[in-house]
């Protein structure tokens, strides 16, 4: 079995490692088996390209124990599943990052994203892998976030040999077989494999670590910039029938004079009244609130709402004073302690004239009104993360009330990739 | 796009400066076309051929209108462009005209001139531009144009095809979003530019839209194939039939409903009859029923294309197994499952032959799990087939992996 020609690729060893990887990470089996190994003497270790070929150095296979090879298999396939080459290309074109140094930085950042939770649990950690701890960075971030956190310097000097191929950072290598070469997967086939893996993970979420579950949820529905979503939600709520701007036959159209005998509707514009209910309980930070509030005020102004039509109401267990937004900076946010948004809604609806839109900014840890309020509702939801997410680990069954389905919910979070 | 040499004769004396400018413009407009595979254009052409309304999503200035001009030229259809956002609802629903005696004759809804011209021509490409920036009432009026093909009292003839364009929410700063009912009626295509195409195009050569050629003899087969795929998927996954978009990020995009599944079926049949690539079909199907359901449909098409386990068991020695590892594993698992379903000696032996064949033509680690499962199906009176000798390599590979697992387990 082990009697192989010196210098030839030991396929038996490589496949044993893949089998082991597929056994300990069954949810990645499809992707692992879809990878096609290609012998290459020019790659330093193992490298992937964007067409799902895996270039393998025979010398590397010879000197690496099987259990570590299994770790490398999973590492390489993770680059492809997480679309690091596509994301690398997007960053490169958005931020004008060119050159090998920047691509090496992307490779390191991508490795950090993968390596913090991929090993252990039956999978050995290959020698010399990069992880966030090595660069003194926090764990659990995305490649894009890591990219902003470090530069190449003396402490990364040992990593310059690192090369996971064009599948990890998007830069074509001289050994790549290219789009027309043998054994490549087309775009559609790649999507199909990623989709099957993601479905396997979401189907049995208990088996996969948190990083993979997050990937699976977002693989085909990446989160969108919340500013755009919140803007669209408020705009659509404020301009829908019954509020803001629409057509009416109640007033003659300005085209009427030139078209005698024809009855035309005209555009009517009534600036929407927007009530913002702000959750000032202890669990929402001032920075989060400040940025979201500025956003709502800006959107309302862009809609043609006069400043006096946008009112802000801070609310913890009781609703506090209502005041119009004059300058967003000087809104006093009083409160702290427990939340009951129901009082906030009630207070907002008591105003005359009634608001057209209520925007609630909250972390969602609150009871919601039983009935749909008689106006459009947009909820800006702050996801709980970091220390505040500890309930997640201590009591995984606890789920706070989700916002009711009559509200349009926009999750306000970090800018996604 | 003109491909003829313009008749510029620099020798003739110019009367005015504007004449010179006109000559320069003529030279600039002189561009050629070349046939080049373009997935976006092919998807658009196929959807238009299938007579489904298409909605192009793309940033302003990305070349949506240029693509429409090409398409109109390729299909030899006159192009009518209507900017939806500068019209009023009555322009689409018809302008009510009060006649002499409304109580007797009623009030007719007069159509606008472009609709009259389209109906008179009997054929054409109607391009509704800037759909997402149209106010809600205009969108509601457009619903009827797109779905019922009615503009006031007129009905658009069958030869008229509808294409719309919209800017994505991120770039349409003052835009409304598309309502869910309107979004459900369109095939959504994401329009992006290809760097190479733009550079070559600015250099004077644009790609030419090649019409997908439907093979007449394949039509019944294509319809049967598409029906089998869609019905097969929806039988097993009833939840996929109708899912209103519940997520803020997916609003205004494609979502699955019986209507959009009907469109997906139609597009699958067209793509099959035209022999289009999976990339084109993927773009169309995901743009019709949404990403998730679309990918599921494509996955079930992939499964349909895999060889049937019973066929493989009937002739194991000459069986053709898929080249790709993950698909090969699915096939081998299906074969073992088929043997388990109806176990008998001959089928069990045939499965072993098949596994040996898989081992000889591909990676050995794929064979381990099916071989283990198949060995477990053995009945006491069945002898071990001779073929199993050839699988010793697999067994040792499996043992080695077991040892690695044991070492990794104890080491931690």
Task: Throw out a few tags for this protein.
heterodimer; A: about 425 residues; alpha/beta; Rossmann fold; 2 domains; 11 strands; B: about 400 residues; two-stranded parallel ribbon
Architecture blueprint of SSEs:
The complex is a heterodimer of chains A (417) and B (412).
Chain A: H1 11-24, H2 29-34, E1 36-39, E2 46-48, E3 53-56, H3 58-63, H4 66-81, H5 84-95, H6 100-118, H7 143-147, H8 166-169, H9 187-203, H10 210-218, H11 226-239, E4 245-248, E5 266-269, E6 274-279, H12 286-302, E7 310-315, E8 319-324, H13 341-350, E9 357-362, E10 376-381, H14 390-394, E11 408-411
Parallel strand pairs in A: 1-3, 6-7, 6-9, 9-10, 10-11
Antiparallel strand pairs in A: 2-3, 4-5, 7-8
Helix pairs in contact in A: 1-4, 4-6, 9-10, 11-12
Chain B: H1 17-29, E1 32-35, H2 39-49, E2 54-57, H3 64-75, E3 79-83, H4 89-93, E4 95-96, H5 102-105, E5 109-110, H6 113-121, E6 123-129, H7 136-148, E7 150-151, E8 154-155, E9 159-166, H8 180-183, E10 187-190, H9 195-202, E11 205-208, H10 219-236, H11 258-274, H12 278-289, H13 291-305, H14 309-314, H15 325-341, H16 345-361, H17 365-376, H18 392-411
Parallel strand pairs in B: 1-11, 2-9, 2-10, 3-6, 6-9
Antiparallel strand pairs in B: 4-5, 7-8
Helix pairs in contact in B: 2-12, 10-11, 10-13, 11-12, 12-13, 15-16, 15-17, 16-17
Number of E strands of chain A? 11
Largest interface: A-B, 70 and 61 residues
List the strand order in the largest sheet of chain A: 8-7-6-9-10-11
The CATH fourth-level homologous superfamily of the largest domain in chain B: P-loop containing nucleotide triphosphate hydrolases
CATH topology name of the largest domain in chain B, in short, is Rossmann fold
Structural class based on helices, strands and sheet pairing of chain A:
alpha/beta
Percentage of residues in strands of chain B? 5-15%
Mean pLDDT of chain B, to the nearest integer, reads 83
Q: State which percent range the strand residues of chain A make up.
A: 5-15%
Bulk shape of chain B: elongated
Computed Rg of chain B: 29 Å
Q: Total number of helical segments of chain A? A: 14
- Can you summarize the main beta sheet of chain A? 6 strands, mixed
Output the radius of gyration of chain A. Answer: 28 Å
Low-confidence stretches of chain B: none
Cross-sheet strand order for the largest sheet of chain B: 3-6-9-2-10
The assigned CATH architecture of the largest domain in chain B is 3-Layer(aba) Sandwich
Which structural category do the helix and sheet elements of chain B fall into? Answer: alpha/beta
Task: Identify low-pLDDT runs of chain A.
Answer: 385-396
| DSSP helix fraction of chain A | 25-40%
Q: Report the average pLDDT across residues of chain A.
A: 75
Protein name (chain B): ATPase AAA
Organism (chain B): Polymorphospora rubra
Domain AAA+ ATPase (chain B): 50-196
Pfam family, one (chain B): AAA_5
